[in-house]
UniProtKB/TrEMBL annotation:
GO terms for biological process: L-serine biosynthetic process. Keywords: Amino-acid biosynthesis, Hydrolase, Magnesium, Metal-binding. It comes from the Eukaryota. This is Phosphoserine phosphatase. GO terms for cellular component: cytoplasm. It comes from Pan paniscus. Coiled coil: none annotated. InterPro entries: HAD-like_SerB, HAD-like_sf. Its cofactor is Mg(2+). One of its GO terms (molecular function) is L-phosphoserine phosphatase activity. Gene3D superfamilies: Phosphoserine phosphatase, domain 2.
């Protein structure tokens, strides 16, 4: 984590910015949906509950999705914005 003042300095010069919008801007969690598609929803859901902060690096190796599965997830489950997001 960086301070707000550090972020204000870094942001304008960034080549790319990545935001985690699962279950905040988007109503569903993409990692949980991918785990469901790959048949291991229970294990990943339990892991998610244990460690919401930084759990992505633990969950993705368990899911081991192929590129095709990720593309299918995106095609079959387009994101739905949370009600308060326009």
């Amino acid at each position: 984590m960086v301070s707000h003042s550090e972020l204000r300095k870094l942001f304008p010069s960034a080549d790319a910015v990545c935001f985690d919008v699962d279950s905040t801007v988007m109503r569903e969690g993409g990692t949980d949906e991918l785990a469901k598609m790959c048949g291991i929803e229970g294990a990943v859901s339990e892991m998610t509950q244990r460690a919401m902060g930084g759990a992505l690096t633990e969950r993705l190796p368990l899911i081991q999705p192929s590129r095709e599965q990720v593309q299918r997830l995106i095609a079959e489950h387009p994101g739905n914005l949370t009600h308060h997001i326009r």
